[in-house]
Design a protein that fits this description.
This protein is mostly helical. The chain has 2 domains: about 1-205, Fumarase/aspartase (N-terminal domain) (Fumarase C, Chain B, domain 1, Orthogonal Bundle), CATH 1.10.275.10; about 210-520, Fumarase C, Chain A, domain 2 (Up-down Bundle), CATH 1.20.200. Helix content is about 55%, strand content about 5%. The protein has helices at about 20-30, 35-55, 80-90, 100-115, 125-135, 155-165, 180-185, 195-200, 205-235, 245-250, 255-270, 270-280, 290, 295-315, 340-370, 390-405, 430-460, 470-480, 495-505, 510-520, and strands spanning about 1-5, 10, 30-35, 95, 140, 140-145, 170, 175-180, 325, 330. The chain has a 3-stranded mixed sheet. A 3-stranded antiparallel sheet has the order 5-7-8. A two-stranded antiparallel ribbon has the order 4-6. Strand 2 (about 10), helix 1 (about 20-30) and strand 3 (about 30-35) form a beta-alpha-beta unit. The chain is elongated. It comes from Arthrobacter zhangbolii. InterPro entries: Aromatic_Lyase, Fumarase/histidase_N, HutH, L-Aspartase-like, Phe/His_NH3-lyase_AS. It catalyses: L-histidine = trans-urocanate + NH4(+). Keywords: Histidine metabolism, Lyase.
C-alpha cells in the first residue's frame, strides 16, 4: 500500500492501511485504487469459495443461512437471493444520519479488508465499492443499528445496499437520491452478489475503527491545543512556569507528561509577565492544580492516545470477516469480528477527553473570580455590574463538561444478547465511537472558551498586543484570536465570538499560528 504525494490517492494492496489514508479518503476525498496484488489475492480466494459452493456439504456464509439461521442449508438456485435478502434485511438502521466522513471511513476500512483476499469476494465487487468512494456517493446510515459485534452490521449493510443500487445515498453536493439514480448518474453499474459476498461486505469492525482513527487525528490537535490553553492561562493568571521544568518531569518518567510539559515550556518561553511576577516580591508558593498539574492530566490523555493508536494500528492490519479464507485455502469460522478491543479504547478516550475538559473549565473559572484572578475585573467585565463579561461563557463550559462526564460512562460494558442468543455477547463499539465524537466536539468548545477568556484576560492585564508582555508564542495565539474576535470592551453578543474561536481550534488554524511562531511542531 502506498499514498501518492499530497494524499491525492490511496492504493490498497494486501497490507495494512495507514491512519492518514483513512483521514485522506474520509475527510478530503482522496481517490482509492486497488493494487494488482490485491486483485490477484481476491481472485485466488474466490476460487476457494466457488469450489465450496459446488459441493454438497453446508458451508457457513456460502450455502447456509446466517446467525441463528445457520442451521438451514440453502440450495444453489436460492443463493443469489440469500445474499440479496441478507443485505436488505440488515439495512435496518434508524435515527439521525451519520456524518459523511464516518461512512466513508467505514467503507474504506471494509474495502481494505476485501483487498487482503481473505474474504472470498470477486475482484469486481471491490472495484465497484471503490467506484462508490471515488464518485463521492455516500450511503445514508442512521446512528442506531450496530451492536459492534458480527460487524457493524446495519451501517455496512446500507453501504452494500447502495452497491446493489438500492436504498438512499448522498451525492457529493449533499443531495439525497435513490442509489440507482446516483449510480447511473456516475456511470456505475449495480452489482449482483454471489455466494459469501453479502456476508463479506458487512462483517467487520469498520465503522468503529473509522471513528477511532478520525478521533485519534483530532486528539493530536486538541491535546496540543489544550497545552496552549493551559500556557495562556498560566501566563494570564500570573502563575509559575518552574513546575514544568524538564528535570521535574524526569522524576516521573511518564512519556505523555513530559511531552505536555515541553509544549507548555516552549509556549511560555520569553514571557515578560511571568518573569516580572517572579521578581515582584513575595508570591504564591504554589499554583492551583488546574495550572500546576496540567502536564500530568494532559500527559495521561496523551498516554491513553498512544495506547489507542496501537490498538487502531493492529485493527487496520487485520482481515476481519467470518468465515474467513485462510492463507492455506481453508474457509474457517472465527470470532475476530468482536469489537471489544476497539470499543474499550473508544471508551477510554472518552474518559480522558472529559478530564482534560474539566481541567480547562477550572482554569477559566479562576479568571472570572476576583479572589483568585490576581487583579483582574470580576468576570473580566469591562464595567462589572453593568457588564457581565464572560460569566455565562463559563456556564456554557460547565454544561458541556457535565455532558462529557455522562459521555464518559462506558458503552462497552453494556452487552445485550441478540440473534436468538447465538450472538449473546456484543461490544457496543459503534455506540462508543458515536459518543466519543460528541465528546470531542465538546472538548473543542470548552478549549475555545478557555482560549477566548485567557486572551481577554491577557489584553486586560497588559493593555493589548501593541504593548504585550506575553511570550512570543502566546502573543501569536492572541493575535490569531484577535483576527476573528475584537478585544475587551463593553458586553457584546458572545455566542458568535465563541463560535469563531471554536472554528480556529477545530480547523487547526490557532495551533498553526503558534507553531509558526515557534518554528517547530508541538508534540
Amino acid at each position: 500500500m502506498h499514498v501518492e504525494q499530497g494524499l491525492e490517492a490511496v492504493e490498497l494492496g494486501t497490507g495494512p492501511l495507514a491512519a492518514r489514508d483513512i483521514v485522506a479518503v474520509a475527510r478530503h476525498g482522496a481517490r482509492v485504487d486497488l493494487a494488482p496484488e490485491a486483485l490477484a489475492a481476491m481472485a485466488s480466494s474466490r476460487s476457494v469459495i466457488d469450489n465450496l459452493a459446488a459441493d454438497d456439504k453446508p458451508h457457513y456464509g456460502v450455502s447456509t443461512g446466517f446467525g441463528a439461521l445457520a442451521v438451514k442449508q440453502i440450495p444453489p438456485y436460492q443463493r443469489t437471493q440469500l445474499q440479496r435478502s441478507l443485505i436488505r434485511s440488515h439495512a435496518a438502521s434508524s435515527g439521525a444520519e451519520v456524518d459523511r466522513e464516518v461512512v466513508r471511513a467505514l467503507m474504506l476500512n471494509r474495502l481494505s479488508t476485501l483487498a487482503t483476499g481473505r474474504t472470498g469476494v470477486r475482484p469486481g465487487i471491490a472495484l465497484a465499492y471503490a467506484g462508490l468512494l471515488n464518485a463521492g456517493i455516500t450511503p445514508v446510515v442512521g446512528e442506531y443499528g450496530s451492536l459492534g459485534c458480527s460487524g457493524d452490521l446495519a451501517p455496512l449493510s446500507h453501504c452494500a445496499l447502495a452497491l446493489m443500487g438500492e436504498g438512499e445515498v448522498r451525492t457529493p453536493d449533499g443531495r439525497m437520491l435513490p442509489a440507482a439514480t446516483a449510480l447511473a448518474d456516475a456511470g456505475l453499474t449495480p452489482v449482483q452478489l454471489r455466494e459469501k459476498e453479502g456476508l463479506a461486505l458487512i462483517n467487520g469492525t469498520d465503522g468503529m475503527l473509522g471513528m477511532l482513527t478520525l478521533a485519534l487525528a483530532d486528539l493530536h490537535r486538541l491535546l496540543s491545543t489544550a497545552d496552549l490553553a493551559a500556557a495562556m492561562s498560566v501566563e494570564g493568571l500570573l502563575g509559575s512556569d518552574s513546575v514544568f521544568a524538564a528535570d521535574l518531569q524526569e522524576l516521573r518518567p511518564q512519556h505523555g507528561q513530559a511531552e505536555s510539559a515541553a509544549n507548555i515550556r516552549s509556549i511560555l518561553a520569553g514571557s515578560v509577565l511571568i518573569e516580572e511576577h517572579k521578581t515582584g516580591g513575595f508570591t504564591r508558593v504554589q499554583d492551583a492544580y488546574s495550572l500546576r498539574c496540567a502536564p500530568q492530566v494532559h500527559g495521561a490523555a496523551r498516554s491513553t492516545l498512544a495506547h489507542a493508536e496501537s490498538v487502531a494500528a493492529a485493527e487496520r492490519a487485520s482481515a476481519v470477516d467470518n468465515p474467513v479464507v485462510t492463507l492455506d485455502g481453508r474457509l474457517e469460522s472465527n470470532g475476530n469480528f468482536h469489537g471489544a478491543p476497539v470499543a474499550y479504547v473508544l471508551d477510554f478516550l472518552a474518559i480522558a477527553v472529559a478530564d482534560v475538559a474539566s481541567m480547562s473549565e477550572r482554569r477559566t473559572d479562576r479568571f472570572l473570580d476576583r479572589s483568585r484572578s490576581h487583579g483582574l475585573n470580576a468576570f473580566l467585565a469591562h464595567d462589572p455590574g453593568v457588564d457581565s463579561g464572560h460569566m455565562i461563557a463559563q456556564y456554557t463550559q460547565a454544561g458541556i463538561v457535565s455532558e462529557l462526564k455522562r459521555l464518559a460512562v462506558p458503552a462497552s460494558v453494556d452487552s445485550i444478547p441478540s440473534s436468538a442468543m447465538q450472538e449473546d455477547h456484543v461490544s457496543m463499539g459503534w455506540a462508543a465511537g458515536l459518543k466519543l465524537r460528541r465528546a470531542l466536539d465538546g472538548l473543542t468548545r470548552v478549549l475555545a472558551i478557555e482560549l477566548l477568556t485567557a486572551a481577554r484576560a491577557l489584553d486586560m492585564r497588559d493593555g493589548g498586543l501593541a504593548t504585550t508582555r506575553s511570550a512570543p508564542a502566546v502573543a501569536a495565539g492572541r493575535a490569531a484570536i484577535r483576527e476573528v474576535v475584537a478585544g475587551p470592551g463593553p458586553d457584546r453578543y458572545l455566542a458568535p465570538e465563541i463560535e469563531a474561536v471554536r472554528v480556529l481550534v477545530d480547523g487547526g488554524t490557532l495551533l498553526a499560528a503558534v507553531e509558526d511562531r515557534l518554528g517547530t511542531r508541538l508534540y
